[in-house]
Specification:
CATH topology: TIM Barrel
Number of helices: 8
Subunit structure: Forms a complex composed of PxpA, PxpB and PxpC.
Largest sheet: 8 strands, parallel
Distance between the termini: 16 Å
Shape: globular
Strand content: 15-25%
Number of strands: 10
Radius of gyration: 17 Å
Number of domains: 1
GO molecular function: 5-oxoprolinase (ATP-hydrolyzing) activity
CATH architecture: Alpha-Beta Barrel
Order of helices and strands: EHEHEHEHHEHEHEEEHE
Protein name: 5-oxoprolinase subunit A
EC number: 3.5.2.9
Catalytic activity: 5-oxo-L-proline + ATP + 2 H2O = L-glutamate + ADP + phosphate + H(+)
Length: 259
């Protein structure tokens, strides 16, 4: 169970935003901000730059969307998806640095950073690696006090966060395939990303209403979550997010932030 109580038929909808830098843009931030209730904003290590962070924070604050720090390994060339070995104390400093950078722009927009979510390789590493998870949590504590930590249910990240007195929020993915153990299928494997819009919508409803989804192999997997992620870097992400939100509402599911 999450430290933030899971309520029946209530779920947050989050997406990764600000994933560009300079003249390069990957995510349709404005369109997604009109749909999601929480925005995972890239903090400059896997994507994002000061201008992008400022713009996303301003638009999120104006639209009542909660701002989250999406922290990553220092891997701009690899989009934060390459495995890295970073000492826990160094990782903690880098996590604090990223949260602090985003907090400047969130405050300038009249808001605050509301939670922290690791990105890519760091997210997956913290499912099983206690040392890396501890580094992330130490960084959150140093920069954000008691910020909630968004992550996979049952992860070492959530174990470390709970031990440090941080709230945890379980997250599920409508557009990612699951293993029978409840972890995400690695992106390098075929079928890791669910591309069929009908399937994504169906999975979103199953997660929100039933707390379950089919694994990549077809077996049922329990995935009770307070927040549902739709990746902002997939083609047609904004239109898909609008449809998912509409279908959730039609099914009697309330979409609202966990903060």
């Amino acid at each position: 169970m999450s430290d933030l109580a899971v309520q029946p038929a209530v779920i947050d909808l989050n997406a990764d935003l600000g994933e560009g830098f300079g003249r390069w843009r990957l995510t349709d931030d404005d369109a997604l901000l009109s749909v999601v209730t929480s925005a995972n904003v890239a903090c400059g290590f896997h994507a994002g730059d000061p201008g992008t962070m400022r713009r996303v924070c301003e638009r999120a604050a104006a639209g009542g969307v909660v701002i989250g720090a999406q922290v990553s390994y220092r891997d701009l060339a690899g989009f934060g998806r390459r495995a890295m070995d970073v000492p826990a104390d160094e990782l903690a400093d880098e996590i604090s640095y990223q949260i602090g950078a985003l907090e400047v722009f969130a405050r300038a927009a009249g808001a605050r950073v509301g939670y922290v979510k690791p990105h890519g390789a760091l997210y997956n590493r913290c499912v099983h690696d206690a040392e890396q998870a501890a580094g992330v949590v130490a960084g959150v504590r140093a920069a954000g006090g008691s910020l909630p930590v968004l992550g996979l249910p049952g992860s070492r990240l959530h174990e470390a966060a709970r031990a440090a007195g941080l709230p945890v929020v379980e997250e599920a993915f409508a557009d990612r395939a699951y293993t029978a153990e409840g972890t995400l299928v690695p992106r390098r494997e075929p079928g890791a990303v669910v591309e069929d819009p009908e399937e994504v919508v169906g999975r979103a409803l199953a997660i929100a209403r039933d707390g379950a989804v089919r694994s990549h192999g077809g077996t049922p997997v329990t995935v009770r979550a307070r927040s549902l992620c739709l990746h902002g870097d997939t083609p047609g992400a904004a239109a898909l997010a609008r449809r998912v939100k509409a279908e959730l509402a039609a099914a009697g599911v309330t979409v609202r932030s966990f903060v």
